[in-house]
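Structure ticket #2291
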Amino acid sequence: MDTSNKPNQPLQNKSNTSDTKSRNDNVYKGTILVLVIIIGVLTFMLITGRQALQEVSTEKTIVNELNLELKDELNNVLNEYTMVKHEYDSVLTKQDSIIQANAREIEKLIAEQGDYRRIRRQLNLLREITQNYVREIDSLYTENRVLKAENVEMQQEIQRVTRQTTQLTETKQELEGKVEVASALRAFQINATPMRLRGRDREDETDRARRTDRIKVCFTVAANPVASPGNKNAYVRIADPSGSILRLGDDERYSFTIGKDTLQFSMRGQFNYINQDTDVCLYWDKQEEFDEGMYLVSLFTDEFRLGETQFSLR
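Resolution: structure written out below.
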């Protein structure tokens, strides 16, 4: 019996080994499948969690932006209310005190569980006072806005008038300057001639210093239709080669003023100007010997410099 069963033992062992291996493979496969499922679930949860986090972050950002907008609106309302209240505080102080007193009275009645009808009447009265208060503020605010607009308009008008006045002043000054320039007198054909005197009022031109007895200065005042006519003073200044003015004396009788300057003159004369070309001649008689060199001759009236010329003596 024992001998006959021995050949079957290896077959049994081989069968058992196959079954065990098959069971292990199934366990491995099951484990791997479970792990794959777990990984899939975790991946899904991770993706879903990220999306949820992004949505929460986005929603939080939106909420923050809305809160900022609400805060800005609240600050604007409070600032406007504070500005209006401060601006009209002296007018609305009585209304404020009435509202505060009625509010305290209503709070006291509610705390004491007072009569409902009485509380309702007080509340209606407070609502009416508050509405009147708001209407009064709105009315004052509207009036103030109108006044501010009128004030801005008035300031703009004042600035416009000021600019216009400034422009008119500048235009007037420019015109006055142009008129002054246009009305100025000018001289042409200015000649300064050294003369030698001979008998019987006879005179000859000369260029010799020792022979010169007189300096004859002649010129023509040009016609000017816008210049003021009438008698005019003519002044002649003769500067010798050293720059000194030939003159009869140093006192005020031999000086004149033009603009802010006081100048000495050599000779003075008058001419009647009738807005036409006017010829004028003035003479300087020798007081002492003339020096050799260049002499400068300048012509003036009380208001204008007419021109200048020069001559030389040798």
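Closing remark: The helical segments are 2-5, 9-87, 89-111, 116-182.
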